[in-house]
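thought: fold this chain, then report.
action: predict
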Amino acid sequence: MVTVERASGWCEDGLMELAGDLGPRESPCRHDGPVRIGGSLRMGSVLVAAGDVNVAGMVEDSALESGGRVTVGGGIRGGSTGKIKAAGSLRARFLENVRVSVGGNLEAESVMHCELSVNGWIRVTSGKGLLVGGSVRSGLHLAAREIGSALATATILEVGVLPEFREELYALRDEAQRSKAKLKFVGEAIAVLKERERAGTLGPDQRGGLLEQVKERLTLLAALGGLEAREHEIRDRLARGARGWIDGARIHPGVRATVGWGYLFVQDELRDIRLTFLEESGEVAMTPVGGWRRGRDGADAGGLGEDGSSR
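observation:
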């Protein structure tokens, strides 16, 4: 069922379309399908859509949440309340002072002073290709023409190992240790009760207790199996992430880069470089990358293919 609150527009085949701008007076606007806006999201707007969102103009200090992809013809400028969340990928001309969470990939011509958390790859290689300030996290890899600035602007990059996966892994380990400790205690209690049962000294109440302990043991074993399966899944994800990389035509001093489990603070300007995690030493390795060629739009394409994969 289509649900639209306050916004004036029309719907056809599940698509909600607004010819002009969406502003705070029309907010919050919620729709259980895709949304197309011919104008801009004005400051203070709130848009929640279950499907893809396409904005022809700007997104100005607004809250936008999409269950699919987000495409912005202009740029996204944040502020006190600006926040973008997309289950799919995000493409915009530029991003500035905005918090972004993306389940897919992210592509823009410039990213300035943002907080980005992207499960897929990040590509800032067309146009200016500038990535400066803020914190940028990618689950796979990142490429930009220019990273940081000549003023040594603090720019934090994390590639390959998203913090939430690390935190979940640590939490799983703690929970598994607690479960193992309980399992050991229950196992010892069962052993004592079974010894009494064999000796014929187990009373009716203790027999009921033995049954409860056996049930508890089965419950703990099932829970521990689930924890170990999830830990294995995350470890596989982290192993793939550890093979992530950062490409930059120019990386300025002041950039702090974490790749996989390795860390590098850039002190001298780097050019045409790829940063990768060297598992043998646990450090970030620097190797030349020669893929910075002119693309069809006249922009440097970096070391990425059309789909953002490494060439």
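thought: worth noting. The CA atoms of residues 121 and 141 lie 5 Å apart.
final: tokens above.
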